[in-house]
Amino acid sequence: MYSSRMTRIVTLAKRLTTPLLPDDYLTLFNPLLTFDSYRARVSQINEELPGVRTLHLRTARNLPAFRAGQHVRVGVDLKGVRHVRSFSITSAATGMAARELTITVKATGQGGVSDHLVHRAVTGDIVYLEQASGDFVLPAELPDRIVMIAAGSGVTPLLSMVRTLALAEHDTKVTFVLGARTTQDMIHRHELVALSENQEWFDLILWPSAALGHFNRAALLREIPDWQSAQTFVCGPAGLLTHADSIWRSQNALERLHTEQFQTRLAKIDGRGGTVSFAKSGRSQAADANTSLLQAGEAADVLMPNGCRAGICHTCVVPLKAGKLRDLRSGELHGEPGDMVQTCINAAACDVELDV
What we know:
9 helices, 33% strand, 356 residues, Rossmann fold, Ubiquitin-like (UB roll), alpha/beta
């Protein structure tokens, strides 16, 4: 009832304020107030490691409740253009709407949202948020045994899960493998070490790959002999996930493996590419076989929807009007008019036209 009434009020407000929007007036009083989206102020910044920051974000109105492990799309305005990227929420999930959350961001060295938040964001800055999403989540009914394996910034969604468990009464036994090149490179290591020293349900294995090699099948059997009985959550680079998939698949145990990755390996494609035309904007851009449709659109100054560049969040999907595409991950040729295609992981295999 409240939702439908509020929708009618917002619709009427839009008519009365045309050509401006109600948000244009609200932000004169408070830059965080909006009807149609969420804005947050950076209220605190913690330096975790060189090139890694935790940002505390506070909104003017409650964000819907999220589940531990989910991510949120964060937008920042860079040189007059809004760029959006997905980040895992690192706060504990309380099951209630709230006005605060945290994200931990690692700089990529490629510019864009991550580097801006790590190197240039200051307290008081305004960012744009969307509701949390994602199905890499802590189950509502906790199992007796959980294994978590993280590498690099893959620790972030698992940290939310661990913090959520730390606030709840439960009988779940958790083993957490925290990997990075060196112990000093491990994000949130001190917090996890302290938790392992104070909570009987939580065991921590630190795995510096420079000294021990990658966490492989032999290491899994040696360090976690009961792994097959556990629900396992793995997050990190593509190599880690591929290796985990092969191990669990060989034991017919994929139903107990849950994975999330932040980067996708793209194959090197041989081919001629083509001209990418953007129907709604009336622009076009020549692109070789290894240039994604997303990159082509940005080069043509077309406002392209996107949240990541790894084929993970599915926010860059647009309709294909004509032409054939090549999947940059596998090299597979595909595409029919009307297909909804991900622009970050597809390239032109000939001249193509997108409805954007």
